[in-house]
Amino acid sequence: MVPARLTVEYSLTTVDITPATRTETDSLGSLEIPADAYWGIHTARALENFPISKRPISVYKDLVVALAMVKQASARANREIGVLDPEKADLIDRAAQLIIDGEYHDQFVVGVIQGGAGTSTNMNANEVITNVALELAGREKGDYGFLSPIDHTNRSQSTNDVYPTAIKVGLGLDLRSLLEELDLLRRSFLAKAVEFHDILKVGRTQLQDAVPMTLGQEFHGFATTLGEDHSRLKENAYLLCEINMGATAIGTGITTHAEYGRRVLHHLREISGLDLDTATDLVESTSDTGAFMSFSSTLKRNAIKMSKICNDLRLLSSGPQAGFGEINLPARQAGSSIMPGKVNPVIPEVVNQVAFAVVGADMTVTMAVEAGQLQLNAFEPVIAHSIFQSITWMRRAMWTLRVNCVDGITANTERLGAMVGASVGVITALTPFIGYAAAAALAKTALLTGRNVADLVVEAGLMSEEEVAKQLSPARLSGLEAVTASIPVVA
Length: 491
Description:
Blueprint: E1 7-10, E2 13-16, E3 21-26, E4 29-34, H1 41-49, H2 61-81, H3 86-100, H4 119-136, H5 149-153, H6 159-195, E5 200-205, E6 208-214, H7 215-236, E7 242-243, H8 260-272, E8 277-278, H9 282-287, H10 290-316, E9 327-328, H11 346-370, H12 380-404, E10 410-411, H13 413-422, H14 431-434, H15 436-449, H16 453-459, H17 465-471, H18 474-477
Parallel strand pairs: 7-8
Antiparallel strand pairs: 1-2, 3-4, 5-6, 9-10
Helix pairs in contact: 2-3, 2-4, 2-6, 2-8, 3-4, 4-6, 6-7, 6-12, 7-10, 10-11, 10-12, 11-12
């Protein structure tokens, strides 16, 4: 992992630029580790073995924070039950807090995709926290005789309870910010619903003209569906609250004190602020990753519904001359290298693509959950990466959709009014008064002649001009003012 000896020649002088290193040893042998690195030999081997994603786990900030929280909670529990020296426990505690506060995240360097069921991630966390703690104690990095990544920082733990617990805690933390952004997006659509509350438009079913509605009602529907997703995501957050700390290797709790599980749960709840609970069956909990599949499915639901909204925004703004042209999206950038003046709906388009990626990630999670065998699922790294990526991309997509698109949408009121005036769909509002057969005949005449439906109804003597105007008012057409009295149908 350390660059070979480098030399630079300046005329007759050769300068030696060999990087400073320290030697670390594991059961496989020894390696030279960069002297300034807080990670150690186990992380170094993972860097050699998994050059796959070229994305370190530090890209998911809340996963790193969650790992530090788990280590901090364990140090406190181990100190209380007397299996870890108070001085060493305090050093681990303080080092973990620095990482929770956002320091040393660049030292979490192992790739998000890795073999070993997350062991490399756990080792990376053990080594970084240990070496930070050693510096706090005034000692050199790598002085594992004083404080060991395995014997002390990882005391009473296994990757098989640390890693899934950290994933759940990290996702719980990440979900908070996702929910905040989702609610802001919902409010943005709601504000547009208020702004457009009295603007009539033609509704559409199967892309064909239907009955009138208001543009405000359409945007209110967008806000409502996002609100439903907010509720579903909050409800499914409980799936992330069942942890298996104390299970160690396969759920039997080997190497742990009888009190450890209860104590570590208490501290992790306090540190994270999450309503965590220990699984009743640690063997089952250690091998089962179904909670991740269910949670991923809820994310997919939200992504798909958001994508559908973006499809509608693209249709409603299509044109501006030869399309629907009912609303105007903010112009964000030039849309063509060849067609001057063309502007594309780039913000809804990018949200669509995020939704496609979330669907693919959900399928990855599903297959990884199915592939688990016996007492452990070895594929939790790709599960974690898939869900964290989905949350991260969705949160950013929500932000750009709100700030760069929805907040700046305007209504093309003249075009909307003209389309409602020319629409034969408005005759549906008159069918209770003139009957379906008469309405259908007049609608056909209006389509063939291009004449206004209301004028045809009055000319046919079926309703007075005042009655037609009342029934075709914006309030009646949009259903905001219901007709509650009995309605006589003209014979």
